[in-house]
Amino acid sequence: MSKKIKGTGVALVTPFHKDGSIDFRSLGKIVQFVIKGGVDFIVPLGTTGESVTLTKDEKHAVLDYVTEVNDKRVPLVYGLGGNNTQEIINCIKHTDFENIDAILSVSPYYNKPAQRGIYQHYKIIASASPVPVILYNVPGRTGSNIAPETTLDLAYDVKNIIAIKEASGNLEQVSRIIKDKPKDFTVLSGDDSLTLPMIAMGAEGVISVVANAFPKDFSELTRKAMEGDYEKSKKLHYKLHDITGLLFAEGNPAGVKAALGIMNICEDHLRLPLVGVSKVTYNKIAEAIAAL
Prior knowledge:
Helix content is 46%, strand content 12%. With 292 residues, the chain is an alpha/beta fold. β3, α3 and β4 form a beta-alpha-beta unit.
């Protein structure tokens, strides 16, 4: 499985209608769009999918619909994490994993566990999961960092943990993990803007936000970098540089939803407490898209 979860993954947005209900038709359009654009795997119900504002029934409905539209064309990674270990275990017990290839589980947020707690949290989740587990380190959101020593201990000790999405922004930490990890453990970029340098260091892909709107260019950027063609990858990196910055200027997924709205792929609606980008940023995103 670790060989399948490489290249460009896309952290899918969850489109909403103006009344806040899920726009399944647009969700299907996005899945078709990114697969046609060449992404290697898809990740519904992550941070970008606003999963924390979805009910359990809505999450199951989104997962079922994405699974149906995908129709086994690319691997599917289910975003399933949180800060209540037992609740995650309960969710695993009540999930049909027939068409799910792995789960992406964010490090516990808010309660800020010690490294030993993070280790035990993931070890228990991995023992309960019938599919492989990908760690997700994003200290800017969780309030705590998965130390490289903890990542490496989990990679060596727990067979069912196959990868990490590293979004710490700390290239020294990423370097340490890549240097000392098991051969079959995969490091994925969790920062679109750092994908090229991380692959140059030895990462084997990305779980991207930008690829919702620009799947062809971002997939090609990743593919060329992994092939060692850094000249072509670098050109695509700088082609997407400005739009990438704009999509994160006022938070995720506000920026990418604005872009998808401008591109007539889905409506630009979020669920509170998230709100859309300002008019100034919206206009800058529109100008950048027109330039591309």
